[in-house]
Amino acid sequence: MAPTDLAVDAPSLNKRSAPAGTAASPHRWWILAVVAVAQLMVTLDATIVNIALPSAQADLGFSDGDRTWIVTAYSLAFGSLLLLGGRIADLFGRKLAFLTGVGGFAAASALAGAATSFEMLVFGRALQGVFGALLAPAALSLLTTTFTDAKERAKAFGIYGAVAGSGAAVGLLLGGVLTEYLDWRWTLYVNVLFAALALTGGWLLLKRGTRESGAKLDIPGTLLVTGGLFAVVYGFSNAESHGWGSGLSWGFLAAGAVLLAVFAWWQTRSSHPLLPLRVLLDRNRGASFAVMLIISAGMFGVFLFLTYYLQLSLGFSAVRTGLAFLPMVLSLMTAATLATSLLLPRIGPRTVVGLGMGLGAVGMAWLTRLDLTSTYAGDVLPALVVAGLGIGLVMAPAMSLATSGVGADDAGVASASVNTMQQIGGSIGTALLNTLAASAATAYLTGRDATDPAVQAQAALDSYATAYWWSAGFFAVGALLALLLYRRGVPSTDGDTAPTVHM
How many whole angstroms separate alpha carbon 331 and alpha carbon 389? Predict the structure, then answer.
């Protein structure tokens, strides 16, 4: 069956034609560098602060229970406002949205870094999330509208996918170095340096767009989706800290599901929908959204629990732990570049993404064999390389196809949808894997001497192995989804992507 035999995928339903004869930007590769720096800043902030939390706690004097809010404040604001940020970029210009997001993120980072109290730190982290929700979809949509040639677009998204996929690991390394050799506050101040580069490049290279005539925000849709996403992210965050038996967890998750269902209904009635249904109609695009949700949940099995294992079981320092992830980053970047430039144009997303998910599952299953006698070179490193290859084969093609074929006026909201899937997937993965790991540790300790260090160490290993197995399961489900949802064959060339001048 040819790809075009599977409706509802006709280009006329999903694209708005770009003006003919508009040349690609001569500065497009520099624009890619600027966008990549900004994306790295946002992505690594999900993990860079984690390593610094004990130092921040000792300095500001907040409790263990309060510590989770340093992470939650960022994820709540970021996850709940992404679709609004994407639509603002579409309606009022991507350059304006990008520069505002970068500048605001830098200011919020400086505020959080200078925090003199727990409340000030949480407020700064929440502001980071607000401006990140404006920055992230604008950054991705800039690539969608900048690279119009299919081969160049493939290379650009390979690089962008590598940055997005490796940002969490880079955050762990950078967070460890800054905390150990400078101060925990530099895990926040460093964003000002990234932002200075992105602001300068963006101001000089990006062309100013004009506001869409008659542009209007879908206010009811904005309130519904923002409330729904907030409730979902908070529900999973609460489940992580208070358990699945908490009424707040289930209450917020149920409320979020209802609000998102009403939002979906409203989008069919609104004259200016926040998320136009034409963005969701393409089969490859919908498959990419689902794949991003799954892989974001599964990736936490690597970054979260392997960090625990390296530091608590093998005794690695924070810096050495970060360095341990570098081979994974390199394999991920290599696979991401090859996936979009070489594999995707030849064998299509079904095989490439399915293979990547399969390799991810193998890497996760490999990690379940780790014990107290395991070595990094012989046991951890091979699994990391395999997992990195798998994640790279998934991230870049999924991001590219999730925004491919979208008209200029929908590029921001399509990009925001990709980021939303990442954020929700990460929230699900963190909450679910933490809960399952804790239950496994409790079950192991039942009937044993919980004060014995050897028993405690083995209980921790059991909890990590449980998380790895579930992560492997996420990747296996992702492989099945890729095989079932993606169209057969090579994706058609995106000839109608909006050019740079219409940013």
Answer: 5
The strand ranges marked E within 408-464 are: none
CA distances from 63 to 53, 56, 111, 312 (A): 11, 11, 21, 21
Distance of alpha carbon 42 from alpha carbon 212, whole angstroms: 27
Per-residue pLDDT tens for 344-368? 888 888 999 999 999 999 999 999 9
Give me 381's structure tokens.
Answer: 């490193």
For residue 98, count other CB atoms closer than 10 A to its CB: 28
Q: C-alpha dihedral over 304, 307, 308, 310, to 10 degrees?
A: 160
Query: Under a CB-based contact definition with an 8 Å cutoff, are residues 295 and 418 in contact?
Result: no
DSSP code for 7: S
DSSP string, 43-71: HHTTTTTTTTHHHHHHHHT--HHHHHHHH
The burial of 216, by beta-carbon neighbours within 10 Å (0-12 exposed, 13-18 middle, 19 or more buried), is given as exposed
SS3 355: helix
What's the pLDDT score for residue 492?
A: 63
**Average pLDDT score over residue span 452-469:** 90
Tally of CA atoms within 13 A in the half-sphere of 343 that contains its CB? 22
Angle CA(435)–CA(293)–CA(370) in degrees, nearest 5?
Answer: 50
Nearest Cα residue to 52 out of 232, 197, 192, 179: 179
pTM: 0.78
Q: What are phi and psi of 470, to 5 degrees?
A: -65, -35
Residue with more model confidence, 91 or 37? 37
> Which of the four pLDDT bands, split at 50, 70 and 90, describes residue 484?
very high
Q: Please tell me what DSSP assigns to residue 252.
A: H
Buried b or exposed e, range 161-179, using 16+ CB within 10 angstroms: bbbbbbbbbbbbbbbbbbb
* Structure-token match 């991810």, residue found: 360
Closest among 469, 478, 480 to 366, alpha carbons compared: 469
pLDDT of residue 296: 87
Specify burial of residue 39 (Cβ count, 10 A radius: 0-12, 13-18, 19+): buried
Whether residue 329 is preceded by a cis peptide bond, meaning omega within 30 degrees of 0, is: no
Percent of the chain topping pLDDT 90: 25
**What's the CATH fold of domain 26-217+274-502?**
Growth Hormone; Chain: A; (1.20.1250)
Distance (Å, whole) CA 91 – CA 402: 20
CA distances from 403 to 182, 243, 390 (A): 40, 36, 21
- Range scoring the smallest mean pLDDT among 11-25, 47-61, 269-283, 382-396: 11-25
Burial of 45 (0-12, 13-18, 19+ CB in 10 A): buried
Quick one: pLDDT at residue 496? 42
Here the tokens at position 391 are: 């994640």
Q: Which residue has the tokens 């984690």?
A: 50
Number of residues assigned to the chain: 503
